[in-house]
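Team,

Forwarding the record for the chain on the shared tracking sheet. I've put the sequence and predicted structure together so nobody has to dig through attachments.
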Amino acid sequence: MNKYTLALLLFAIIFQTGLVAQEKSEKSDTTKTKKATKELPLEPGRTIHLKTTEGTWLNLDVHPNGKQLVFDMMGDIYQLPIEGGKAKRITTSIAYETHPKYSPDGKHLAFISDKSGAGNAWIMDLASEEQTQITKDTDRNYQSVEWTPDGDYLVAAKGGRSLKLHLYHKDGGSGTQLIKKPASLKTVEPAFGKDSRYIWFSRRTGSWNYNAQFPQYQIAVFDRETAEMTTKTNRYGSAFAPTLSPDGKWLVYGTRHNTETGLVKRNLETGDEDWLAYPVQRDEQESMATLGVYPAMSFTPDSKNLVAYYGGKIWKIGIEDNQASNIPFEVDEQLDMGPEVFFKYPIKDDPEMLVTQIRDAQVSPDGKKMVFTALNRLYIMDYPNGKAERLTSNDFTEAQPVWNGDGTAIAFTTWEGKEGNVYKMTPNPGANPQKLNEQAGYFSQLAWDKKTNRIVCVTGPAKAFQDAIGPFAFGTQNNIVWIDGNGGTTNFIKASGGRGAPHFVDANDRIYMYHNSKGLISMRWDGTDEKAHLKVTGIKTYNLSDFNHCMLQEINTEPAQKPSSATVVKMAPKGDKAMAQINNEIYVVTVPPVGGETISISVANPKSASFPSWKLTSLGGEFPQWDQSGQKVFWSLGNAHFGYDMIEAKRVNDALAKEKKAATEKAKKEKAKSDEDKKEEETDK
């Protein structure tokens, strides 16, 4: 037995009544300036004093007048005299801002910022410090941005994984993609030289993969007149971060030689190459290089020196003699940071402890009791405000309880070290459990049909779970079976084949289940006549389907963003609605009576779903359950249990809508009367 008793000083039982959330009122501090925005809602919770003469991965650019430069550090942009000194911070928000680039006339600064809630290209007027958002993306990654030599356009590298070069006008517009084929081509680090006809950039086939073989990148040129692309390097150690001199004579780029990264200079007139600096900052070929393969560099306006970052410092390197001199800088700033993510979790030897998660909670058919699992043991309590008690005295895992139709018995699964079983017992603490199955195995996902008194579950051999290396053991959920509620043989229905979450509706004698690709399905008790009824999808998220642990597979096209799939869908007992769990949020959708067709409903925006739909959760939820009437939904989150009354929610929302309509009509009448009074006053005059 566990040497501790369990204090289930449990959980808040919370009923939600629609879209109205009750919040604790807090006094607003009118003396504190709020820095959070709608797009970046995290309010700074602390500051740090940053005083340093070194930095990490500084992208920089030299002003056209040669007297100053800009660089980024820790998501802010700084300006520095070319001879060095104290850096001046010129962006100060909590947004992450990188890759600053002076406009050709030196009056503006282009950079990448996520202050709109996602990465985008921005422009700052250096005189007024006014900032203008150029691109309007909400779900793309931006690596860098570069001005065209005439100062009218910006070239940005953006995308999901395989970034592409796009052209935007500085005054706005949606822009255009410059290189569309091949789809697998990644194009980053755009740069211009003396001739504005050509865009230099780093190219790669595919975005990135683990343990990749060299070469990874080469430098290429895009012709803005012919739309032709020409590769300009063929180095085994790759070539990246093209940087061109204003006089059109020199190209400097990064490459890997042996185990180190170095900078190569190429005379564009003769084609001769030599090392400019070796070794320097380690490049990012082994990653997705979200900030570039190498920190951005810049020539001085006279083309005699390259200014580059490596080794924590900023260096000015003579292009003819390769001599590097340090440009010293000091950053001395107070930086805003988000609240510290630190929680104290005391570990005590007290005889009681507070459970932080309850699992598989099931409210009884009459709504008066609830059974659940905590720390792999079953507990029962009067619902909603009773004291939780152990249901058994077993010293092995107990899980996934279910009620019979009249609430007089509870069935549950176990794992007893070498085998699992299915038991039932009365809902009375200390009652004797009865084993229902004759042959041991691994049992999960129980559902008790009140019409037939059969318990449906998914099962597999016990040995498969014993040999498993993780909780999702291969072979433990091979078959769908049923066992009589009074015990007996295990009856095979069909191979599970990705089906799970069995449940029932009142109107027919079919078994409903959820299939990971077919959606909500049903079948007869012999496994025949399978029908697909419903698919429910949610918001689009970044596609991770091609990830396998640390391996990232090369693909020929950019992975498409797909709607999130439900992890489970359960039909309501009346068959008129269905409950879906998507990204750990709970939704309810109306299921129309359409025969012969699988209905697809998106709840990305429930208000505009194809049939009436509701999002029930605001902070997430797990282990959802319908009540017997199909009018209430229950779920858990941590050690809290929630209930949502659909009828009460409709009543509240209707009342709010009526109240809002009345207020609108009242305001209209008052305005009309005010207008009439003003008109009479003017007439009297």
